[in-house]
Amino acid sequence: MSQEQFARVAQVLYTVTSLLSSSACRNIKQARSFTQRRQSEQELCNLRNYLSNIIDAMPSVLVGVDDQGMVTLWNHLAEQVTGIRFEKSSLPAPGQGVPPACLLR
């Protein structure tokens, strides 16, 4: 093999190695990002469960309403007092089917 051919082969090998190295680096970064995202999602899930347990353990009726007047939160005692189970899709906003007196107990 001539020196010129050797130089071309060496250049090709160097280019391929650089591309593989860059690809491996991107894959490692993506794996880390995925792992961090999964950990963050698990922490968020744990926090939601923790807050839900605190809200349900409160000894008073607790109802949360968003900007549009839709009920977004309904604790366990609210279910017991009103007899209505919390389901975001079917629970009416205050004054629209849930007697206001039930919400004030």
Order of helices and strands: HEEHH
Task: Describe the largest sheet.
Answer: 2 strands, antiparallel
Number of domains: 2
Count of separate DSSP helical elements: 3
How many beta-strand segments? 2
Span between termini: 93 Å
The mean pLDDT is 79
Taken from the alpha-carbon principal axes, the silhouette is rod-shaped
Q: Strand percentage, roughly? A: 5-15%
Commentary on this structure:
There is one protein chain. The protein has three helices and two strands, in the order αββαα. The N and C termini lie far apart (93 Å). With 105 residues, it is mainly α. The model has no long low-confidence stretch (mean pLDDT 79). Strands 1-2 form a two-stranded antiparallel ribbon. It folds into two domains: 57 residues; 48 residues, no CATH class. β1 and β2 form a beta hairpin.
Quickly describe the structure.
The chain is mainly alpha-helical and 105 residues long. 64% of the residues lie in helices and 7% in strands. It has three helices and two strands, in the order αββαα.
State the main characteristics.
105 residues, mainly alpha, 2 domains, two-stranded antiparallel ribbon, 64% helix, rod-shaped
Topology:
Layout (H helix, E strand, L loop, with lengths): L2 H55 L5 E3 L5 E4 L1 H7 L17 H5 L1
Antiparallel strand pairs: 1-2
